[in-house]
Design goal:
Spore Coat Polysaccharide Biosynthesis Protein SpsA, Chain A; seven-stranded mixed β-sheet; alpha/beta
């Protein structure tokens, strides 16, 4: 991918996860530049990223007082808030692919697919409404009245957004902001940042990134490519012992592309934690699902970006 950059971000606490993510990237048959948003790493950690992994480390220094206040209260939010400013932080790259620190890349095809979706002048992102979500967020008031409470609805409500905005995104797919791709010249950036400014008046900074993306796409009409779970796998883990890979929980059990630990706090903060994982043979085995512990192989899929067929946006 010419002029493409994979971006992540970290504070001192998340640094071990970033190292594992970078190790999984460098284990592939592909070279890509990597940028890291510094959200409070030590000098030694930043030096290691640059010297050992060849990363571009940059700090997010916003001019907006609202952004400054949010980051001052919680420095790690420089990643959540800064991910909507990648075109400003890394202006020399045409395609920007963001991966949360608690991800690792098992199959490079996922990165190619994300870049392919972004090439349509669209936000390439994985929705959270998928086959792994067999229950939808409905709250039963007094046990009788169903009230739909999606991420979009709850975050918009806490931000005191206009009713028109809430209605436009209320029944639309939630977008997981932990993995996405977008071209530097796409119109989404300005729209997302305008919504970020509005949300931060009263809303929650931690959820402002996904809400801003949803508003830019579902309310403002910016193009979106809804990518498969393969590109941001949050589902239940299934282990293929023969291929030494984490695979899709549903048939045909193909290896997943980007593994994401967003729903697994114990895994994120204990590098030695072993989960009870179902294996393809039906047995349950204790496995450390973090990369770099000798359990997994990266999948060397050689599929040129130009041969990937991406459907039209809607």
């Amino acid at each position: 991918m010419e002029s493409a950059l994979v971006v992540t971000g970290s504070d001192e606490k998340y640094f071990p996860l970033v190292v594992e993510l970078l190790t999984s990237i460098r284990a592939q048959d592909h070279w890509v530049d990597v940028g890291v948003i510094d959200a409070g790493m030590t000098s030694a950690q930043k030096e290691e990223l640059q010297a050992v992994y060849g990363c571009i480390v940059r700090s997010f220094k916003p001019e907006s007082e609202r952004l400054k206040m949010a980051i001052a209260k919680r420095p790690a939010l420089a990643v959540n808030l800064g991910k909507l400013w990648l075109d400003v932080l890394f202006p020399e790259f045409e395609t920007l692919i963001f991966l949360d620190a608690d991800t690792w890349v098992q199959d490079w095809k996922a990165i190619d697919w994300l870049a392919g979706g972004a090439s349509k002048n669209a936000l390439a992102i994985v929705p959270t409404w998928n086959r792994y979500r067999n229950r939808f967020p409905i709250y039963w008031l007094f046990g009788l009245l169903p009230i739909f409470r999606s991420f979009n609805v709850k975050a918009a409500f806490h931000a005191y957004l206009p009713w028109s905005a809430m209605r436009s995104i209320g029944d639309r797919a939630d977008l997981n902001a932990g993995v996405y791709a977008l071209r530097r010249d796409a119109p989404h950036w300005e729209r997302m940042r305008q919504w970020q400014h509005v949300i931060l008046k009263r809303g929650r900074p931690f959820t402002s990134d996904g809400l801003a993306m949803a508003l830019a796409c579902h309310f403002d009409g910016c193009k979106v490519q809804l990518m498969p779970e393969f590109c941001n796998y949050l589902g239940e883990f299934l282990y293929d012992q023969q291929r030494h890979a984490l695979v899709d929980f549903f048939h045909p059990h193909d290896p997943v592309g980007v593994v994401h630990f967003a729903n697994h706090k114990k895994i994120r903060f204990d590098k030695n934690y072993e989960s009870n994982v179902v294996c393809l043979n039906g047995h349950i085995q204790k496995i450390n699902v973090r990369f770099g512990e000798g359990n997994f192989n990266v999948c060397h899929t050689k599929e040129p970006l130009h041969n990937i067929m991406i459907p039209c946006s809607f």
